Every structure is written in C-alpha cells, then in structure tokens.
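To: structure subgroup
Subject: Chain for Friday's discussion

All,

I'm putting the inputs and outputs inline so they're searchable in the archive.
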Amino acid sequence: MIALIVEALLKFAVVVGGLMTAAAYLVLLERWIAAWVQDRRGPNRVGIPLTNIKLFGLGQPLADGVKFIFKANVTPEHVDRTLYWLAPAVVMAAALCAFAVIPFGSVLPDFLPDEWGIKEPIRLSVAPALDVAVLFVFAVGGAAVFGVMLGGWASNNKYSLLGALRSSAQLISYELPLGLGILGVVAAAGSLRFSEIIAQQANSGWWNIAVQPLGFVVFIVAAFAEASRLPFDLSEAEQELVGGYHTEYSGVKLMMLLVGEYLHMITAAFLIVIFFLGGWHFWGLTDGLDSPGGDAVTWPVALARVAVLMAKVLAVILFFMLTRWSWPRFRYDQLMNLAWKVMLPWGVLNIVVVAAAIEFAGRWAAALGVSASMATALAGWAALALAVVLTAWADPTTADNRPMRTHPALRGNADETR
C-alpha cells in the first residue's frame, strides 16, 4: 500500500513539474512562431543572469516568471476578495486535475526493488485504472467555467463581466460538439479508458482520423473553442473587452489564469492524439511483444511509445500555434452559429454513421470487396463530404465572400435593411 502511495506521489510530482516547465517553454516557442509568421524578431536575448551567455533566449521563461511573482501583485479595492482569489485557483486546479488520468506513454518494464512488492509494469499515468477516464477529463475540464465566471463577477468590472459571460456561453456551447465528436470513438473502442481507445486503433491498424474524419473535424474545432484559442478567443478580445474576465488580475493570480488556459490547450492536444491519431501507436515501431496494444514491452518499445506520443502532441500544439497567428478572430455571432448550426448537426451525423458502421460494416465490406475497416473509413469520408455539401447548400453565405448587398440569396434582406 505504501509503495502504491509513493508511486502515485512521484508520478504527481513529475507530471506537475513537467507541465509547468512545458507551459513556460511552449510560451517561448509560440513567441518564436509568432515572430516567424509575422516576419519579425522574437525573444532571443535573455540567457543566464549576470552573464553574457544568451542561450538563444532560453532564459526568457525564467525572467517572465520572476516578473509575474514580484511585479504588480495587487488586489484592487473594489473586488470581492474571496471570490477574486478563488477564481485563479479553480481554473488552475481544473487544468491540472485532467492530467491525473491522461497517459504519457503506455508502460515501463518492472524495475522497482523486490521489497516494494510491485510485480507489474509501471503505467505512465497518475490514475491508470480509472474506468471512466474520458468522463473524468470532461468533468474537470468543464469545471473551469466556474473559475471564469467567478473571476468576472468578483472583479466588479463591466469588461470582466462581459468577458466572463462570453466565455461561459462559449465553453458551455462547445461542450456539446466536443462530446459528440468523441462518442463515435468511444463506441468503436467499447471503453472509456484511454489505453483501450489507443489499443483499439493499434490492433486494427487504422487511426480514427482515417475512420471518423467527421468526428475529428468536430472535435478539433470544439477543442479550439474550449481552449479559448484564436480564432475563438472572444472572452478576452482586447479590442472590445480590454482583457476580458482577467482584466483586473495581475501578478501571480494572472499567471495562474494564463497558465490554466495554456494547460487546456495541452490537454486538448493530448486528447486529439489519443482519440484520433493513434496515441503512442506507430506502425512497426511501437508494437509490443504480444499485441500492438499490449503491456509486455521491452525498454526500447516503451521509450519509443513515449517518444511517439510526445512527438504527436507537440505537432498538434504547433498546429494550434500556427492557427492562432494565421487566422483572424471570429465575430461572436459567427462563433455561436458555428457551434449550434454546424458543429452540433455534424456531431449527430457522425454518431449515426458510426453506429451504422458498427452494425453493417461487415455487409458493406462484402458488397464492396474490401475489409470492414476500409468500408467504415469510406463511410466516414462520405459522411464528411455530405456534411460539407449540405452545409454549403443550406447556408450559401458560409461559402461565399460576396458582400450582402450583391449576394443573390440576401439581396432582398439587404434592401429591407437599407
């Protein structure tokens, strides 16, 4: 029992320390990418303090952290102090709790001393045996909206309140397509465990992005909105709301809010990789000794699985960053219309297609002369094409950039407006 507690505490310390370090240096990486996209110089001078060693700006996260701790750490007089201090803690706790069940690899071969009494592989997750891991991540992720609302309300600032209302409406609205996007994945795997979802993709040899492309599109769009990343950062649009719900925050409290948002992006990247990109599976490289999703692995296979998973996560994070600095911000009505009029129907269509594929994939495969996985993939891509065509047909303005006054479908409305 003591050995299990020590193992969990060690995992927790490694995860929290790794996440805080990763968040700090991913911010630096994003500033470099922003400079590259916008053709300017990013941070490249801060190195080791009191020396002339620059290290390509790798000391910048340390300098930023020290600045947050010692600069402008004040509490305005007009705020509700209890709720004002509670909000950053709620956002940070919700962001960290999600990583209790997210795996960072499959397993490590048993290397602990015999006296510890643990005779099984070390699973690379703080709580690996949770049967409802997917539901747990969604539950704690949804709790972040309470921190946002508390921060906006407690600030007693109209800009903060408007930002909190925007953000809460956005987060609640996109929870629905986010859940619909992974229902097909859960149905195909028959489990709510992340390891089982990865094993299902590894054993079939087909990642879910190829089998359920419509679900992938729905999930990744909703993940951008849930992480409040551009083009969906309406909760803190500086042109309209100064800084949104954290306008009145500074110092360590602001750092907790910003790091919490960044951790949500990292969580979204892990979920995208696990649900749709095969997790730690890569053909011919990360197969175990008994099965592609098995636990009987050697040290090279175990480390390869960790490396593959982290490489995929980093690639998704880079996609998040490039999107942020390449796309303009949506209007708020566009944001909500996208959730309720596009993503929600697409998510429902994906579930219907996946359910039909689970029931009839064998018959489709026999009729087409292909494998069941190929038949399911063909149905998924056909569903994606159908969704795009029907959406463009139902609302032509979504695929037409002509001004409203010259658009044939809207000319009458434009005349009435004038």
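Points worth raising on Friday:
The CA atoms of residues 279 and 395 lie 36 Å apart.
Confidence is low (pLDDT under 50) at residues 289-293, 414-418.

D.
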